[in-house]
What we know:
The protein is an alpha+beta fold. 21% of the residues lie in helices and 28% in strands. The chain has a single domain, classed as 2,3-Dihydroxybiphenyl 1,2-Dioxygenase, domain 1, CATH 3.10.180. The strands form three sheets. An eight-stranded mixed β-sheet has the order 4-5-6-3-7-10-9-8, with helices on one face. The termini are far apart. 34% of the residues are buried.
Amino acid sequence: MPNRPQSALPCHPEPACLRQAAGGICFSLAGAAPFGFKSAGFVLLLTLLFLPAALQAKQKSAIRPRISGIDSVVLYSSDLKSANDFYGTKLGLNIGGSGCREASRTCFTTNWASRQHIELEHSDSCPRGDCLKEIVFQTGDAKKLRSYLMAQGAKASPISKGRDLSLRFDSQDPEGNRIAFVQFPILAIDDLPPGVHVGPPFLHAGFIVRERAATEHFYKDILGFRSYWHGGMKDDQTDWVSMQVPDGTDWIEFMVNVSPNADHHTLGVMNHIALGVPDIHVAEAQLRKNGWTGTEQPKIGRDGKWQLNLYDPDDTRVEFMEFTPTQKPCCSEYTGPHPKP
């Protein structure tokens, strides 16, 4: 029997032929090219069939775990005794407490319910001129977040496990600022001991940024932070850029346009932390009752919120701020939800 031409091969279920269900079109694999396919149409068909699944798998592998808020900050202190008096007595923060179980340094719980806290590390001088050493964020899955960051080209330390079963790793942003992420087990928060108050939560942490594009790409495009507000000393300039965590209302604040020759006090103004209060005037009265004698007075900031600035013994600014604005902000509208008490 003479050989039939390849184009006349019947369409039946055999390895050499693939039938399209709707039209009965047959692509023969007989005499296939070196890569296994003779027809460019066949390659296109396979691409259309399998590309969506491949893209979906890639997207699943790149899903970022939740980042819900600020967990803690670490500050350098040249005089721990004076710092203890400032944070413990004058600010009225709880020494030790729910947030300080894993702390090896002097530690104050700012907000008992969320475990937020401030740690103090002794240093005769602040290594970079400012005393903000590290910002730690809470995440829902430290291992997956570490893998995600490393896949994006970021550096990350090995995972460490705390005595309270928390998981943590360290990293840094493009500016060289030290950041870390911690995951807590689902455990009940200890009840407040007698005489202990819940305390003010973190609203934000601010730090100097000189390479805004690279730093904004890291926090926004890689970590998923969201724009909240931006403004400046003048309506037509941007000196501060606020970006909220992806899955909460805490934010970080980029302090831009800062002179490279800024003195120690200016660095302390820029690299700062902020605690939330429902009423700034009530907060001021309590601070003065606690022994704070500063000359600063409450004022409405350019963001439309009441605020009051204090400075610790090393000139690190601690800003008390109301949760919501009392008037329209300058420069831009808010684009994210406000935190709640």
